[in-house]
Amino acid sequence: MLAVFNRELHAYFRSPTGYVFCAVYLVFSGIYFNSVLMSGQSSQFPQIYYGLLNVILLILPVLTMRMFSEERRHKTDQLLLTSPISLTSLVMGKYLAALAVYSCCILFTLIYAVVFTFFAQPSWPLIIGNIIGAILFGGAFISVGMFISSLTESQVVAAIGAFFIGTMFTLLDVIPMLTTNTFILKLIDWISFVGRYTPFTMGLLDFSSLIFFASISAVFIFLTIMAIEKRRWI
Q: What is the CB-side half-sphere exposure of residue 225 using CA atoms within 13 A?
């Protein structure tokens, strides 16, 4: 798994993929940070992470679209499928490499918090909570995007598919405005990604939300392994 992780991590920065992802994320996070800094309201600093959720959903497919689609398109996936490494190690290595790139971008925003201390006193529990929530949130969507990538050889299709599913999950929060059905409202509240992220924005380490995001990641990692296992025998 470590070999796959290192190979994938280097691959992100041997191509424009890793640089584009990091650049776009840091540009938008810088814009949000500047707006908070200009407002002079330290209490609004954690809102940087909340405001970046839509940006994350938009650019995460850039990381995940190539995870399996590229190798499938170049027919090099058969080399991996016949290698002695287990499929679980292969999938986990790729997943952790994408998560590492994403997490580094999230952690980079700690520099903004340090800069902010020269102007006001930010709430560190809120900031740490947002960072943990953002990593869990992104980790879940990386697993979804990886699964989509394992189903197609087109990176464009993989990116669009991941973006579509991410959009559908966020639009779930619109449904409560359209219905008063108690069962539907409770269901949406339980599966809402944004709703599950909200406790972290308040500096709360909500274990039910933590388990939710970890479970989503585990389910789609498992589905990815099953999808690749199926191709091995075709």
A: 16
